[in-house]
Task: structure prediction
Amino acid sequence: MRKLLGAALAAALLFAASSALAQEVEAEKGATPAEADENVDEVVVTGTRTVRLRREAPVRTDVIGETVLRLAAPKNLADALEYLPGARAESNCQNCNTTEIQLLGLPGAYNQILFDGLPLLSGVAGVYGVEQIPAILIERIEVVKGGASALYGPGAVAGVVNVIPRRIGDTGVRASLTHERPDGEPYYAASLAATYAFDDGGNGVAVFAHGEHASPVDYDGDGYSELAERDLAIVGGRARLALGPRSTLLLDYRYTAEDRRGGNRLDQPSFLANISEAIDTRLNIGSVSLEHELGPDMLVAATYALALTKRDTFYGGLGQVETDPSAPGFDPEALAAATALSRNQYGFTDDALHFAEVRGEVGLGSHSVIGGVQYRFESVDDQNVDVEGRLLGQLVDDSFDDLGVFVQDEWSLASNLRLVLGGRTDFSSELNDPVFSPRVGLWWSPSEPLVLRANVSTGFRAPEVFSEDLHIDTLGGVPIRVRSDPALVEESSVSASLGFDWRPTFREGAFTLDGQAYYTTLEDTLFLGEIQEEADGTLFRIRSNQGGSTITGAELTGTYRANERLRGSVGVSYVDARYDEPQIVFEDEATTLTVERYLKSPRLTAVGQLVFEPFERLQGFLALRYIDRMDVLNNRTGSIVRTPSFVVVDLSLTRHTPVGVDGDVDVTFGVKNLTDARQRDIEVGASRDSDYVYGPRSPRSLFVRLDAAF
Result:
């Protein structure tokens, strides 16, 4: 399928290129953001890396913008994505709450997270990264579902999530304070940002700082946390500087420090807890980009970025050994033996990610062409150390790189018809042969109210160190590590989608309806097998290629604006992600469990939102989220559990108060998860399976947030 698609695309690209070169360069190559009414439609860039109004983008791009980021008061990227139909944030650990983003019903390793278009979250940083990007620093989030390796390279199988940071705007100061009470425990957050703009706002410098403290939450009073204790601090800055009439320098830097710990005996060192997962992360990310306009429709740009991650970890503990000398069954010899093992369950990870890109953009008549070269190099040093920091073993000491060459032509065949042709070839150090990733897309507006889209795209995952390798599950306090089969090869995908966007003239466009159907096939699916045990008691799982998978699905979203004070939307998503052959997920002497569908992948999800203004300067926000039943594996009991469905209700009120000439203050009160919908059969005690966790990530939580801008 990929070879046939590639051959067809190569012929189409050749024809498109010859057509483009035969035409003169025009002064205008399409609508610019300034020509659009941004109150009607957002500007997006992720689908094709070209600036388009969302409705005019050939590749459907979902957007999470001001409504959710301001009125719903999400804490971070993971929280914000909960309000997007077809996307889910799922916790994968009862101890440390590592969180992944699901697209197309597939686990987080199948999508790529970008920061302002750059793939700067490495496998190490990505384990906890979606909770380390505060929502207060985000301008909007763009999500493209389906294979996107033709533009973004390895990892973009289920889609891409592009975090667009707040742009440098007018000179001013913004501040935010948040207090929440999840299950009655305190959470605090504070942010401060200052911007100095010049050249009429086109250039400037912005600096920011953000801090959080989250207290541990124990749902059932067994002494073991369900929500980890967290402390997060972020400082950074951005700059846009004109080097001349046609050259612009972009600088970005962010330092992140996060300490999180879950389990029990949180007042003791980790090795004295029955279960402890402790992760101390220090992350430095910086980038520099230079853009130069060669002409009205010609741009060249060069980018270099560096992400350095250092992480101290502890996964494990004493297990079920009694630690209280006054308790029945206390055995000092058993405690001493368990302590001797627990002292050796520390780790240190040093990860360096280098990314460089040179790209060009040119308008040639009816063609808008973008092409370039990307290079990514990552080195991972992962060590097992003891409580004193002495080296006990080298778990990973590896480096890998990928060189990608890409080109894309967005061809305007007519005013209402555009064709997208693109392809990328990746040369990975982990693969013997290069990987070609083509894409074809069609945008057609047969009438003003209706837009139709059709896309065929591809994606792949190379056998590198994955994020799940660098988070260690625990079972009864014993770490479970991941090993890769030496014969592991890349996993590849082909995605087809067909969608529409209908905006009838009824009440001047007050009603919109859009939908999309997906069909994705995966070959050589990367699969984690059952837990196995070495002779010395070490637990591990093998990642190998296990046949193929097929994902089918559809989404439908409707919006309605009754008047200036009342608007709402409802989005429904159906996804069926299943293996082509049953896969073994658990096996012991008495039991063998197989699955046909992906675990923790509900078929039906829905999101409804209502924004209302009962009084002047008072806005209300109501959201309902539905999560269907799903299958989850419990390794402790050796069983597959069918979960209940969940309905999550969020409600908030925001009071807006103007201050002075340009200032304003917003105060938001609300409750998240009003129905307290969450997992009820949580694992308890030292023998719990930390991986057996599902559903809404947070309990009922009251909150208040103060936002001020001057």
Summary: Residues 3-40 have pLDDT under 50 and may be disordered.
